[in-house]
Design brief:
162 residues; 5 strands; alpha+beta; five-stranded antiparallel beta sheet
């Protein structure tokens, strides 16, 4: 269980701070059930999720784990989509990203880039959206661990993937 003040990675929302753990008094929530009150570090939005949520909720990576991942990126195996129809390709990349771990996010980013030989202009728009989201989640999680700006971390990630 996480405590107020802890930082977490929550699904597609990414890096968040736990503001409170409480039973909300709003009518829209399940009565008597404890919730995390999260604040997104990316956009400041407030997120409410049950303590026993089924969404991916995890502690951020440590600095050592972030450095280890960056060193593994050049040799990381990719999992490019083998199908050619748009729906199956998108499903493949969403499933690849699904665990929302830094490993899974890095694999998703690298796989999409390798699939299109790094040419961003050749990536279909739907895949670009997945690429953008996976990279944003990966970089925001790593930048916090590395104590670097988003842009500095993004540069390190992209350089390691080349």
């Amino acid at each position: 269980m996480f405590n107020p003040g802890d930082y977490v990675i929550y699904g597609d929302s990414g890096f968040c701070r736990v503001e409170q753990v409480a039973v909300p008094d709003f009518d829209t929530f399940e009565k008597g059930k404890p919730y995390y009150f999260l604040r997104s570090e990316a956009d400041g939005s407030r997120i409410y999720t049950p303590v026993d949520t089924h969404q991916p909720l995890r502690a951020p990576v440590t600095q050592a784990e972030a450095e280890a991942l960056l060193s593994q990126l050049p040799a990381m195996q990719t999992c490019p989509a083998t199908a050619h129809d748009r729906k199956t390709v998108l499903l493949h990349y969403r499933q690849l990203m699904q665990p929302h771990t830094c490993q899974a996010l890095a694999c998703t980013v690298k796989s999409i880039l390798c699939q299109h030989h790094g040419a961003l202009s050749r990536i279909p728009s739907a895949e670009q959206e997945i690429l953008k989201k996976a990279e944003q989640l990966l970089v925001s999680g790593l930048s916090a661990a590395l104590n670097l700006s988003y842009n500095e971390t993004q540069s390190r990630v992209r350089k390691a993937m080349q």
